[in-house]
Amino acid sequence: MSSGEWAPLPGMADLFSPESELWHAVEEGAREVFSCYGVREIRTPILERTSVFARALGEGTDVVQKEMFSFEDRGGRLVSLRPEGTAGVIRALLRLGAAAGERVFYMGPMFRAERPQAGRRRQFHQVGVELLGPPSPMADAECVALMAHLFERWGLGGVKIRVFTRGRSADHPSVREGLLRTLEPHEAELCAECQRRRSTHPLRILDCKVAGCRTVVERLPPMTGFMSAESRGYLEEVSRLLKRLGVPAETDARLIRGLDYYEHTIWEATHPALGAQDAVAGGGRYRIEIDGGVVEGVGFAVGLERVILALSGGDAERFARRPTVWLVAVGDRAREENLVWAQELRRGGVACGLDLAGRSVKAQMRAADRSRAVWVAVRGDDELAAAACRLKNMATGEETVMPVAEATARLRAGA
RNA sequence: GUGGAUGUAGCUCAGCUGGCAGAGCGCCAGGUUGUGGCCCUGGGUGUCGCGGGUUCGAAUCCCGUCAUCCACCCCA
Q1: Where in chain A is the domain with CATH 3.40.50.800?
Q2: R_g of chain A computed on alpha carbons
Q3: Is the ipTM of this complex over 0.85?
Q4: Domain A322-412 is of which CATH architecture?
């Protein structure tokens, strides 16, 4: 039943096998890739002072204004569940005295009070990377390449990577003014939503899905025209390096990011199998000021729900861990002996299953088959008397009687 | 926050204009006195999401409510 007070809260999900195995595989794959890049794990609190996010992401952003789970804690502090990973990580690194050159990743749940939808939960999970250091096209290119490497490691094909720039911080006002100025003659052609956006988030007009707005946007001069030569050169350098690194990224002048802390390089990865929420990852270079300190770096976050959605389309079954052997007992005495044997096998690292309910041999065999165990070991009074077992290969049906000690050794050896 | 759709068995769903609550899959048992997959047989009381209303009678019609899904918005 999907309703009632025992169901999870809206936008929150219970996760169980085989999906949990798929999650584990994805997380392990990421750890493997990170270790190759010298990126170390950092774990920060899920609950932070609201000001940490407000300051880092921008007071006026939608995430801060209407999407955070915020409340007053018992000490009267205004706190929020983290809506993204960067702010808390930067806060922690600042306090730990981390310097430029620090490379970290984080993994875990994030919370946003939005209406649930395909690929969007209220509790969702991200794995993200932060590479600290001052603006550097090489660092940015390495970071995008690292993200691309992750998709490769996960076997997620068809990812489209788009790169652009917000320009250095000093360029932001002139970009905004330039955009509004060139937009003026086309004001009437914009949708109602974009009319409103002109005064709130003008850059978002570039990203509008309405056909009329898109044709207006296509005739607009590139935003790089309102940036300094330095900013334009930076983007060109990043694109050149990405090409050399073999990362299939295309520059897209319509690309925008929603958080205020970005400057220079920004990017996004999308996947066609995802529906309306098709961004699997997003990132960029940032400059964050908290509590008098300034942190510069480049990073990205990947939405794990979306990766898994794009990855499997329901085929999580193949990631389920299967037992190496299933112990079948004929009679109560063998059942107890099997319990003892199973403990020995498991302590030796052999994944082992058995049925303790005292069901028929046939039922036990069916359970073994369903578990997709590679081997089945059958023991009854005859085998117990001889300290033996019948080891059966479930794929071939071949069955051999052998001493228990030998079976144990063979199972531990992995065959 | 806005809009659209949907809630019936463990799962996927059928149930036409109100008249005994169903199918497939799964699961359990047997056919095989100690052996899985294929086949055959048997096994179904499920708050028809919840609460009201209309009616002789409601899974079906009406109202409310909760939940889920999808889209907008925003973002991963």
Answers
A1: 322-412
A2: 28
A3: no
A4: 3-Layer(aba) Sandwich (3.40)
